[in-house]
Amino acid sequence: MEPKIKIRDMNFYYGDNKALKDINMNIYEKKITAFIGPSGCGKSTFLRTLNRMNDFIEDTRVEGKITLDDIDIYSKDIDPVELRRKVGMVFQRPNPFPKTIYENIVYGLRKNGVNDKQILDEVVEDTLKSVALYDEVKDKIHKSALELSGGQQQRLCIARAIAMQPEVILMDEPTSALDPISTMKIEELLLDLKENYTIIIVTHSMQQAARISDETAFFLNGEVIEHGETKVIFSNPRDKRTEDYITGRFG
Amino acid sequence: MDNKELQRIKSRKLKNSVFHGLIFFCTIFGVIVLALLLYDILKKGLPWLTIDFLTNFPSRFPKKSGIFPGLLGSLWIILLTAALAFPVGVGTAIYLEEYAKENRFTEFIKLNIANLAGVPSIIYGMLGLAVFVRALSMGRSVLAASFTMALLILPIIIISSQEAIRSVPSALKQASFALGTTKWQTVTGVILPYALPGILTGTILAISRALGEAAPLIVVGALTYVSFIPKTPLDQFTTLPIQIFNWSSMPKREFQNVAAAGIIILLGILLLANSTAIILRDKYQIKIKD
Amino acid sequence: MKKIDFKSKSGMQRNEKIVSSVLFLFGIISIFTTFGIVFSLFEETVLFFKEVSILDFLTGKEWTPLFEPARFGVLPLVFGTFLIVIFSSIISLPIGLGSAIYLSEYAPKKARKILKPILEILAGVPSIVYGYFALTTITPIIKSIFPDASVYNALSAGIAVGIMTIPMVSSLSEDAMMAVPNSLRQGAYGLGSTKFEVATKIVIPAAFSSIMASFILAISRAIGETMIVAMAAGSTPKMTLNPLESIQTMTGYIVQISLGDVPYGSIGYKTIFAVGTLLFTITFILNIISRTIVRKFRRVY
């Protein structure tokens, strides 16, 4: 199968500091790829290169090549705004806008020129259903999103991301701020979503990576130490450092 | 513990108590002055506060004097000043917080704004006189006064708007960008709605400041005795504070009471403006919650 | 889900460019303002100095620009301003600092909640109102103590300017003291210090530079204050240290001339720009000093 995203000889710099070194990776369509590794290993930075969110940080630089469907996403002709429409993102902490549930979901659509009420209504219902939030909030979709619980807010943020009909969804530790039950619901949700989306998830929890991902990449000090099928990584890692990390013998 | 030591602790505690009393007095000194000031003004001004006072023109006779031209002049200038200063001030704040790169030039703009905030208001009057009244031939008009006032309050609006914009959580901005929006869309979609209460509060405070200013307008050429009301922005004008100033400097003692009545109106408007700021802010915050 | 057709972004990109240019233009208006101030002041000042030597202006002890013989020594106006600064500082610096210490170190939360808004109201009262207060309340009190005092005098105006600048000293100093970390205080309390000792030996030294900066700003503000002195200090330029006499400040002079019918281009018209330039320069230097102190001595805890 042809990879959805290809990363070739990629380096990333904060000023003079090389934060990511020689990354080469293939990410496949309609699979969940998990990035694991200790704090500060570069996995979040790497995730953010895939939708060019690092562009907002001054004095950063990318070398090498990242392609989405064989198109170089760092080429001059690519508008990062359009790229982010195709590559959605969910953040570590739920960050709904201080608006209604409805307005949260349609925000991206409205800003991209979709104003037909019928379409928007449909999208709100569909996305709420696909994140299994519809039954819980159907009576208050015109109430503030801030009244929802943390887990509900995070599912709303996922709904907001998929309302844009992205091809890829990036998730930066989406359950680290949630309780175990909310976490479980989101994990179930991700397994459903991978039918339609390519999902890349950064996680601190090795159990989570093992439970939901198809592929796992282990990051250490800005390098990818090992990348492959999740089953293999967890049962039979090639690298000693990977083994140390997943068995918890790591600082 | 021997006696000496006890004595020492006692004296330290005494020092503390005396100091406590002293600085408490310092703090309520302001309260006392404010109370005295209000009492004085209300006592002198209230009996003079009639409907006629609001609708009359100034007169040689204290009893017939009214504040109408000043009231309308202030209204004209405030509306025009706000219309000029608000978009530019908020725009500058957006530029500095969201668009400008962190470089020397941006630093220079920020330093410059901070310095402008410390320039005495009368200097703005001289700028207005040289640039708007003379060079741009606006004459001693409402328009020239409004431009002058707009420049005067611009730093206040910019600085308070910057603070409000800085208070927008970066998580919200990132969420917006990640949904494929441009910078301006994020500004209008997330940043401004979130920062608006703070921006409005700052703006209303700035406009209150303009409402009470007299010095720059005297330099720009406000009239002190006016028997007409401005009909266009190019007309001459007087304002509330300038009328008050004029009455205060009249030799007839009764005019001091007329001035006090004018001050009651001025303070009343300022109070109203500030309460509006608070109500507006609260109402807006409720709207976000719903 | 149905596939949604998005509009192309090219129009949006064009908007984005226009918006950022417009915002940039707004951003540089402040720079134009500064240039405008400097130019408009200097232009007339240069013309003024073609007729009057700078030395005479800065060192002359008589200021009678509109009378014969016209003399253009600015020192009487500087002296008048200086008197106002002295008396306003005697009021605003200690009282402002005292209330800052009270609010930051002593006040219970409830008291803070009531007192701070009152100080804010005090800061929001227009200077014209303080001018009125000086004229109708402070001056009569002064005259009842010193019957020889003039109806317009430096003391009354100075006190009113001082009252007006209290909130400024208080809130800036309080901010500085609140920024002193609690760990420093707790260390001293742990050694059995009283609040007085903590405030004077720990907090004030730690916040010293910012307190000084707030003092300088208050002085700069007093120098630039106009309406109070125009109403209560008089219009008699003279070199005196007697606060009970009528004097005139730099700002008071500018107002006096602006109220009269001084024709454009006359020497009288030029004098207000020369005085304005001096005023601007002095306040500008003080503001820079204040800012430098804050920046240079800012403690990193």
Automatic annotation (TrEMBL), chain A:
Q: Where in the cell is it found?
A: Cell inner membrane
Q: Where is the ABC transporter domain?
A: 5-246
Q: Which keywords does the record carry?
A: ATP-binding, Cell membrane, Membrane, Nucleotide-binding, Phosphate transport, Translocase, Transport
List the GO molecular function terms.
ATP binding; ATP hydrolysis activity; phosphate transmembrane transporter activity
Biological process (GO) annotations held by this record are: phosphate ion transmembrane transport
Under the heading InterPro entries, the entry gives: AAA+_ATPase, ABC_transporter-like_ATP-bd, ABC_transporter-like_CS, P-loop_NTPase, PstB-like
Q: What is this protein called?
A: Phosphate ABC transporter ATP-binding protein
Name the species this protein comes from. Answer: Fervidicella metallireducens AeB
Gene that codes for this? pstB
TrEMBL record, chain C:
Biological source species: Fervidicella metallireducens AeB
Traced from the root, the source organism's taxonomic lineage reads: Bacteria, Bacillati, Bacillota, Clostridia, Eubacteriales
Q: Name one GO cellular component term.
A: plasma membrane
Listed GO MF terms: phosphate transmembrane transporter activity
Q: What is this protein called?
A: Phosphate transport system permease protein
Main role?
A: Part of the binding-protein-dependent transport system for phosphate; probably responsible for the translocation of the substrate across the membrane.
Q: Which family does it belong to?
A: Belongs to the binding-protein-dependent transport system permease family. CysTW subfamily.
Concerning PANTHER family, the annotation shows:
PHOSPHATE TRANSPORT SYSTEM PERMEASE (PTHR42727:SF1), PHOSPHATE TRANSPORT SYSTEM PERMEASE PROTEIN (PTHR42727)
Q: Which Gene3D superfamilies match?
A: MetI-like
Q: Do you know which InterPro entries this protein is assigned to?
A: MetI-like (IPR000515), MetI-like_sf (IPR035906), Phosphate_PstC (IPR011864)
Keywords, A to Z, come to: Cell membrane, Membrane, Phosphate transport, Transmembrane, Transmembrane helix, Transport
Q: Which GO terms describe its biological process?
A: phosphate ion transport
Span of domain ABC transmembrane type-1: 78-290
Its membrane topology is listed as: Multi-pass membrane protein
Q: Which stretches are transmembrane? A: 21-42, 74-97, 118-138, 150-169, 202-223, 267-289
Q: Where in the cell is it found?
A: Cell membrane; Membrane
